[in-house]
Amino acid sequence: MPSPSRSHHAAPASERTLERAATWLSLACAVHCLVMPLAMSVMPLLGASGISDLSPRAELLLSVLVVASAGAGVFWGYRRHRDVRVVIATATGLVAYLVGHLFEDSWPGMALAVLGALVLAASSFLSARLSHVHDAHCAH
Fold first, then answer.
1. Is 68 exposed, middle or buried (0-12, 13-18, 19+ CB in 10 A)?
2. 44 occurs within a structural domain
């Protein structure tokens, strides 16, 4: 009897963890984009204006983590469930997120970055859900 192909096995825990991390990183980025303008305006009142120097580095680190985890998550997720909707949603979210950050000094740019991060989180959630359904189906 031939051995089952890779597509009939449940996803390794590391791949499921990466999909969860991509979802949470995207959500963290959306919260960061929403909270930072308010925090930046309040910090001088609290005497903590020096903390604002950390923002560009934190922004870059968070962006790199979001893009890397979304890319890896969609790769492994698509490899398991072969649903192109996740790839399209992730690509759309990444484009919106990155274009939003190009214009982050304006409210439309901020809104686009937040929207992109939320779309990335939704696509990661969808990918994880499809993988879970696929893994449950293949286990039977």
1. middle
2. no
